[in-house]
Amino acid sequence: MQYQFSEVINELKPSFIREILKLTVKPEIISFAGGLPDPSLFPHQSIKEASNAMFDRNDRSIFQYTTTEGHAGLREWIAKRFSDTHNVEVSSDQVMIVSGSQQALDLFGKIYIDPQDAVVMEAPTYLGAIQAFRMYQPKFKEVELQEDGLDTDQFLATMQEEDSKFFYGIPNFQNPTGLTYSTQKRQQVADILQQTGKIMLEDDPYGALLFEEEGQSSPDTRPIYALAPDNVVYMGSFSKVFVPGFRLGWVIAPKPALAKMIIAKQAADLHTNSFVQELLYEYVTTHDLDAHIDLIRQTYATKKACMVQAINTYLGDEVELFPTSGGMFIWVRVPGVAIMDLLTVAIEKNVAFVPGEAFSLTGGYTDHMRLNFTSLEEDQIVEGVKRLKAALDAYRANQ
Amino acid sequence: MQYQFSEVINELKPSFIREILKLTVKPEIISFAGGLPDPSLFPHQSIKEASNAMFDRNDRSIFQYTTTEGHAGLREWIAKRFSDTHNVEVSSDQVMIVSGSQQALDLFGKIYIDPQDAVVMEAPTYLGAIQAFRMYQPKFKEVELQEDGLDTDQFLATMQEEDSKFFYGIPNFQNPTGLTYSTQKRQQVADILQQTGKIMLEDDPYGALLFEEEGQSSPDTRPIYALAPDNVVYMGSFSKVFVPGFRLGWVIAPKPALAKMIIAKQAADLHTNSFVQELLYEYVTTHDLDAHIDLIRQTYATKKACMVQAINTYLGDEVELFPTSGGMFIWVRVPGVAIMDLLTVAIEKNVAFVPGEAFSLTGGYTDHMRLNFTSLEEDQIVEGVKRLKAALDAYRANQ
Q1: What residue in A sits closest to B228 (Cα-Cα)?
Q2: B192 with B155: CB under 8 angstroms?
Q3: Which residue range or ranges hold the Aminotransferase class I/classII large domain (chains A, B) (predicted)?
Q4: Which of B 41-60 lie inside 8 A of A, CB atoms?
């Protein structure tokens, strides 16, 4: 039997990096490669309480089909929280619940990309966004991410090009770099969007995970949506501040764009799980989500400090760290080292990371790696960094 | 702000029928238009028990990211149940959990349809499948559905055409007609698939909802997958036999096709909700799903009999009923009546149905309607049919 698959799916090659990373699930490996939240922080008991309260109401509609837009109360809660937090007016009919942020990437790709349209991406950028958009056969253009955000000169020139359809970016604690746009860069990006009449898909899974660190002022994490609401579709997620397994994210969008995304979502999966939408709504209206987020922030801040200290201790002279004060990742440059070769040695030494090339559209970042600090205990973080040092020594001995 | 949406989403017009049906949510309307399971049958107490057992194990992985393919135990359970029920060998690595059957339609469209490929559909066919496939810009071809299944002469000729890419069909208690393929037609379809080397997407949400009726032999509901496993991607669903709100369906596919669907699903939503997968697995391994399905079958059989009797009593001479012995719908022809006009009158009389045109790719079935019998109580069914009669009288008086 010959299967006549579509051109778009046939063009996707199995990822070499993904194949290598499959090796890293062995229990003896300390993996900095993942992007998993710390499972010990999942509010198991609170979810159980919310669940029982929900069951005790004996409301069968929690099991029934629901609307594509999602749970009315949850949409209202999201709109109010976003409006209050970010000092911008959003109504609940601008909110749609999605089956995780990844679905928002897919739906936005579907409503915006015609084949050969150009999607403007940060360099480096999030792997999952590349995967989602590729299904709609765009070209990609890169704009370099600097320590204070996008290279805005390059951004303006790129967005002015006729075929540039939209910009996808992660202004807060970016994946993979951990970098955050400055206040000035946020305003410049908003101005350029308005000036060129183009749209941004703003991905913000990590914005709430801001670490308060001694002697440092907190970065501005206000969404670019708040600066240019007609020009931004904003993506939020409960995966990093609550639990990822529920697959609950949301979008806030200008109404014409939301209307198209609703049509696309209805064709894609009718609606998001109604049971966990009700369960989440029960949780947020009876528990203190902000207190829970504070706990996550403190825990992650401690883990990040531990990783930075371990890197300074064991790898200090050999690497460059990019500054971050939130999120889940540290971006590390190992000047002059072929990072894919280092990964092969590292796996032999029972430690893993994601090589920089995974986040590049053009094969760049060949001496960078992304390290995750959220899913491991502190002793594992230190031991993993020691193994990285051993891997680097072995790599250099082989050169 | 001008939004530059993709060609495919701009081509989708708001549905006139959908707009009309929005009027039918008023509480005074008895709606035969829906496709909702009876919520009183949702196993609320059993799900609560399963949920508490799951929480008590204190396993945080129920909240964590999981694999795109889905819950290993659930996939194993589905493979074994399908193999045992249908006497065909399926392994768990041929099974993927999806976010409801609708997602399987979307993913299959994505991996199979290039623009201008022809998708072969039953006439009439399921509206949601048309919506899902349209996103990938195919042509459509229709093959007439007869009382014993497809017109197989027309099916052979159509599948032999070069541009016919795959066939989408619902062999059991079809939506909208309630019709079921005969044993002979199943074999003919399987033979034609093998002879033409083409693939079928077999949608089977209703197959388990078979009514045993006095004096009638039960129809054959064995999947066509069992007759031609290399040529069929099979879609199953928990929405009609458990609860729809969990958005849990599955596909069974030849391994090359499943591999492509996994890539497409990863880009679309990473994976299906891990929490409800674990909850469903807990339920099916500690409760008797078959006993629950028997209860649904008996309840729906009674409701269907009630509707048929009411139609025979009040509309007997004016309509033709198509035979069905399972599922959720009755397909009714009202010869010579313009069904869209009848719908307008019916809504004034506080009763609603879906007009036949909604299920046609070519504007056909203008004197047919689909009636749902699962979501109403028997007294509502009788009252609704009386209102249909009043609407028909008023319609005729205006001609």
Answers
A1: A1
A2: yes
A3: 44-388
A4: 42, 44, 47-48, 51-52, 55, 58, 60
A-chain CB neighbours of B296 within 8 Å are: none
Interchain CB distance below 8 Å, A39 and B61: yes
What pLDDT digit, counting tens, does each position of B7-18 carry? 999 998 767 677
- Asked if B267 and A131 come within 8 Å (Cβ–Cβ), the reply is yes
B144 & B276 share domain: yes
B325 and B239 co-located in one domain: no
Structural domain for B13, as ranges: 7-42+291-397
B169/B232 Cα distance (integer angstroms): 11
Q: Give the amino acid at B34.
A: G
pLDDT at A57: 95
Q: Do B102 and A40 touch (CB under 8 A)?
A: no
Residue A53 included in any domain? no
| Spatial CB neighbours of B98, under 8 Å, sequence gap ≥ 6 | B104, B107, B248, B249, B250, B251, B265, B272
Same domain as A331, residue A278: no
Residue-wise pLDDT for B318-353, tens only, equals 999 999 999 999 999 999 999 999 999 999 999 999
Tell me, yes or no, whether A68 and A34 share the same domain.
Answer: no
Q: Are residues B190 and B227 in the same domain?
A: yes
We report the CATH number of the domain holding residue B347 as 3.90.1150.10
pLDDT at B143 over 90: yes
CB contact under 8 A, A6 and B247: no
Q: Do B7 and A114 touch (CB under 8 A)?
A: yes
Residue after which a domain boundary falls, among A259, A286, A313: A286
Give the tens place of pLDDT for each residue, B19-30.
777 777 788 999
Q: Please tell me which of the candidates B51, B63, B99 has its beta carbon nearest to residue A269.
A: B99
- B161 interfaces chain A, CB cutoff of 8 Å: no
Looking at chain B, the whole-number percentage of residues with pLDDT higher than 90 is 92
**Residue numbers of B between 93 and 152 with CB closer than 8 Å to A:** 99-100, 102-103, 106, 110-114, 117, 128, 131-132, 134-136
Q: How many residues in total does chain A contain?
A: 399
Q: Is residue B57 part of a domain?
A: no
Among A residues 268-287, those touching chain B with beta carbons less than 8 Å apart: 268-276
Dihedral of the CA atoms A164, A165, A171, A176 (nearest 10)? -80
Do B245 and A62 count as a contact with CB atoms less than 8 A apart? yes
Chain A residues in contact with B48 by the CB 8 A cut-off are 52, 55
> Does B39 contact A273 at a Cβ distance shorter than 8 Å?
no
Number of domains in chain B: 2
Phi-psi region of A166 (alpha: psi -120 to 50; beta: other; left: phi over 0): beta
Say if residue B185 is in the same domain as residue B226: yes
Whether A148 and A196 map to the same domain: the answer is: yes
- The alpha carbons of chain B give a radius of gyration, in whole angstroms, of 21
> For residue B183, what are its two tokens?
């044993």
pTM attached to this predicted model = 0.96
Alpha-carbon span B212 to B175, nearest angstrom:
19
Residue A48 is assigned to a structural domain of this protein: no
Express as a percent the part of chain B with pLDDT over 70: 99
Q: What is the CATH number of the domain that holds A248?
A: 3.40.640.10
Reading across the β-sheet that carries B368-372, which strands appear in turn?
B320-321, B329-333, B368-372, B354-355
Whether residue A195 lies within 8 A of chain B, CB to CB, comes out as no
Distance from CA of B317 to the nearest CA of A (A): 36
pLDDT tens by residue, B170-186:
999 999 999 999 999 99
| Residue A40 DSSP SS3 | helix
User: Does residue B299 lie in a domain region?
Assistant: yes
pLDDT band, residue B42 (cuts 50/70/90): very high
| Residue segments in chain A with a per-residue pLDDT below the cut of 50 | none
Q: Is B100 found in the same domain as B21? A: no
B228-241 pLDDT tens trace: 999 999 999 999 99
- pLDDT, residue B16, reads 67
**Residue that is last in its domain, among A286, A311, A338:** A286
